[in-house]
Amino acid sequence: MSINILHDGDASLDALSNRTIAVIGFGAQGRAQALCLRDSGANVIVGVRPGKSFDAATQEGFRTMSVAEAAAAADHIHILLPDEMHGPVYESQIKPSMKPGKTLSFSHGFSIVFGEIVPPEGCDVLMVAPKGPGTEVRKRFVEGFGVPGLIAVERNASGKAKDVALAMAKAEGLTRAGVLECTMKQETYEDLFGEQNVLCGGMVDLMKYGFETLIEAGYPPEMAYFECVHEVKLIMDLIYEGGIQKMNAVISNTAEWGEYVNGPRIITPDVKARMKESLKDIETGKFAKAWIAEARAGAPNLKAKREALGQHPVEITGAKIRSLFEQK
Ligand code: NDP
Ligand code: MG
What we know:
The protein is α/β, with parallel strands linked by helices. It has helices spanning 28-39, 52-59, 67-73, 86-94, 110-113, 134-142, 161-171, 174-177, 184-199, 203-216, 221-250, 253-266, 269-283, 286-296, 300-311, 313-325, and strands spanning 5-6, 20-24, 43-47, 63-65, 76-79, 103-106, 124-130, 149-155, 179-181. The structure holds NADPH dihydro-nicotinamide-adenine-dinucleotide phosphate and magnesium ion (MG).
């Protein structure tokens, strides 16, 4: 399957002119994207509930109002709320003002793909997803570049949905780095798979097992932390820069040989078999259904796991190490 990469020259900001964009939510992505869109000349208003985000958006000089007011005032509604909140906030505050001709957009396809939001006929539905945290999106934009991104058109009622998606991507600096066109399903499934199996789940459990193995064998936790957690970043930076081979060229031959002989003993083919099961749970909606139920119940298990992690020796040791070695 080949994929199309788009740059600044493929996009025009024209599709945003004479349209009011309501950015709903002013968290990590909301703040970064609203600021970049405004700097690129878009007419941006912000819809949030009273509190920290409301105050932050007001302080940045945005016309800030309730979600319902912003949704009613805008031609284009860009939802940047936590994914598990999209459904309830849409139903109660956005749906009443959804009319044909309005655009609904997201930075992650979760709520559309899993049916949490069912937009009415006659609306464009699209996605502009920066591939980086909000702080990075803003920082790179201010530096004159951008993070890469994904765009997807789920519904093209106006015939111009892709132009709008590209215009937003350009306004946020994403086309400076390069934007891939995909479907919302591809983005959603791949995003969930990556974070559950490799980046967050996967990685965290690998580091914890490594750390636990060393301390259970009587080694000092501080040293175990350096070996199994701290150095992960140094190794990842090398892979990010030049691939696995670049990393292998920098580490010792002993480390490289250890990688070849011991890696496959730890991460065995049954790990891949379980990854395939995890991918199925994502694609069938089983994971999403369980997570939405958990969130609706007030996320008791999420909170319990968060609490338990705070008590794990890897976190206690990590906090101590970071405070001892930080630059004074
Ligand atoms: P955050 O948690 O950082 O921000 C969420 C925002 O939504 C806050 O401003 C919060 O305001 C507001 N909010 C939460 N609940 C409500 C509610 N009931 N009514 C009104 N406002 C509410 O989220 P992110 O920026 O991380 O994520 C937003 C979207 O961007 C998601 O779809 C996510 O998948 C996507 N995304 C995130 C990336 C990331 O790296 N974080 C990367 C790419 C996409 P308050 O202060 O009042 O709680
Ligand atoms: Mg992701």
